[in-house]
Design brief:
With 225 residues, the protein is of the alpha/beta class. It has one domain: Decaprenyl diphosphate synthase-like (Undecaprenyl pyrophosphate synthetase), CATH 3.40.1180.10. The protein has helices spanning 15-20, 26-45, 67-83, 85-90, 106-118, 135-146, 154-160, 204-216; strands at residues 7-11, 52-59, 94-98, 126-133, 169-172, 191-194. The longest helix has 20 residues, at 26-45. The protein is globular and about 50 Å long. The relative contact order is 0.20. Bound molecules: farnesyl diphosphate. Farnesyl diphosphate (FPP) binds next to helix 1, helix 2 and helix 3.
Length: 225
C-alpha cells in the first residue's frame, strides 16, 4: 500500500536568490514566489490525496529583514489574499492562517479574517498560511493557553496548537537542509524532502515527482513493519 500525502508542508525558500541571479530586486523574487504559491495551491486543490497544504509565508524571525523588504512582503500578502478570493472560492479551498496575527496591521488582519470567513464553508483543500509563525512561539502560546491545567498530555498540547495536524510530507526548496522553526512538533514523523530548486522555479512536475517518491517510502512511525 502506498503512502497518502494528506498533509504537505512547504518551506518556500529562494525567492531572493532567484531574483538576484537575474539582476532583479528581491521584491521581484517575492512576487514570483507568490505566483508559485498560486500554482502549487491550485495543483494541490485538484489532487485527490492532498487534504491540507501548509506554507511558510512569514516567520517570527522574518521581522529582522530590512524594513523595506518586510513592508513589501506585507503589501504583497494583502494584495494576494484580496486578489485570490475568487480562486479560493472556485477551487473550494479553505483558507486557514496559523501564527500570531496580532503583530500585523489592522488592514492586513481584516483581509486575513475576511478570507477565512468567506472560505469557511469550503470543504476541499485547506490551505494553511503560516504568518508571523514560529514553532517555538506556537508551543509557548499553547502552553500558556492551557495554564494552569495539569498534567499536560501530548493530546492536550497538540490540540492547543495553531496546527494540530501531523505532516506527512515536508518539502524545503532553495538548497538548505533545515527546518527553520517551521511546524517542528507536527513534523515528528514527516518524510523530509530537500530540493535545490529555488521557490519561484518550483513546478507541479517536481512536486509530482516528490510525491511519487514519497509514496514508495516505508513509514514505520517508530514501530516495525
Ligand atoms: C524565502 O525566500 C521566502 C520568504 C521569507 C517569504 C515567502 C514569501 C513568498 C513565497 C511570497 C509571498 C507569499 C504569499 C502567500 C503571497 P528568501 O527571500 O529568503 O530567499 P533567499 O534565501 O534566496 O534570500
Amino acid at each position: 500500500m502506498s503512502n497518502r500525502p494528506s498533509h504537505i508542508a512547504i518551506i518556500m525558500d529562494g525567492n531572493g536568490r532567484w531574483a538576484e541571479s537575474r539582476g532583479k530586486t528581491r521584491s521581484h523574487g517575492h512576487e514570483q514566489g507568490a505566483e508559485s504559491v498560486r500554482i502549487i495551491t491550485s495543483y494541490c486543490a485538484n489532487h485527490p490525496d492532498i487534504d491540507r497544504l501548509s506554507l511558510y509565508a512569514f516567520s517570527t524571525e522574518n521581522w529582522k529583514r530590512p524594513k523595506l523588504e518586510v513592508e513589501f512582503l506585507m503589501k504583497l500578502l494583502e494584495k494576494y489574499l484580496k486578489n485570490e478570493r475568487k480562486n479560493y472560492l472556485e477551487g473550494n479551498i479553505r483558507f486557514e492562517p496559523i501564527g500570531d496575527l496580532s503583530l500585523f496591521s489592522k488592514s492586513l488582519r481584516k483581509v486575513i479574517d475576511d478570507l477565512q470567513n468567506v472560505t469557511q464553508g469550503c470543504n476541499g483543500l485547506v490551505q494553511s498560511l503560516a504568518l508571523n509563525y514560529g514553532s517555538r512561539d506556537e508551543i509557548v502560546r499553547a502552553v500558556n493557553a492551557l495554564f494552569p491545567h495539569t498534567p499536560i498530555t501530548v493530546e492536550l498540547l497538540n490540540n492547543a496548537l495553531d496546527c494540530p495536524h501531523n505532516i506527512d510530507l515536508l518539502i524545503r526548496t532553495g538548497g538548505d537542509h533545515r527546518l527553520s522553526n517551521f511546524l517542528l512538533w507536527q513534523a515528528a514523523y514527516a518524510e523530509l524532502f530537500f530540493t535545490n530548486t529555488l521557490w519561484p522555479e518550483f513546478t507541479t512536475d517536481e512536486l509530482e515527482s516528490i510525491i511519487k517518491k514519497f509514496k514508495t517510502v516505508e513509514r514505520r512511525f517508530g514501530g516495525l513493519n
